[in-house]
Amino acid sequence: MHAARPRFTPSARKQTDLLARFVQAATHGDLDGLVALLASDAELHTDGGGKAPALPNLVHGAANIARAILDGMANFAPKTFVTRLVEINGEPGFVSYFNGKPAIALVLHISDDSVQKIFAISNPAKLARLPGAPS
Q: What predicted TM-score, i.e. pTM, was given to this entire model?
């Protein structure tokens, strides 16, 4: 029988630092940097609402998630986008804007000083509720 060890939520400062390092690694194509921030059993959930790019299945594992994120950045992210660190539903995250409008929001569930789950929302109906890009 496998006994799960208790997980803890790091301080807000540690979460913000991890989020900033995540954004840095993702926007600079740093595969090893992303893998280092993800739990080995991490999960990536995507929601395009059938109207925006999204993965058809849940992605498991740090290396698979890092590759999926970098592939998405290379194939779908506009070259000129603005990223803003935010709190979404009480969790650390970021919103990437294109032409002043939200293009994708990522919410990170952080525990034990690593990213456990990522929720990537590109569904335009859900992004419409977010404010526009800061000026």
A: 0.88
